[in-house]
# Entry
Amino acid sequence: MNLLTIFLQAALQGQAGGGAAMNIVFIIAIVAVFYFFMIRPQAKRQKEIKKFREGLKPGDQVITAGGIYGKIKEIKDDSIILTIANDVTIRISKDSIYQSIADAQQGK
# Structure
């Protein structure tokens, strides 16, 4: 936050002296902060989730987005057959797989 304070002070001083260039620098700094602290980490997380979902195989134990624990029985193009109890299977979208049970226990 110290960097942001410095930019704010510099922008206010620049306005007093007619510094339009400082306003542009301030806007670029705000965009950079948003990119590095919000957009970039989210994109990285999305890539990790996509890689995880592509690496799923029958026998993996997973958790769905709805909180259902189960074991993958079969994987089709865009859906997964999940065994949640003895002789109980459900079909879910591949996009609704949240994480593996091992990752959930580690707190990821």
Observations:
- The longest helix spans residues 20-54.
- The chain has a mean pLDDT of 82.
- The two ends are 27 Å apart (CA to CA).
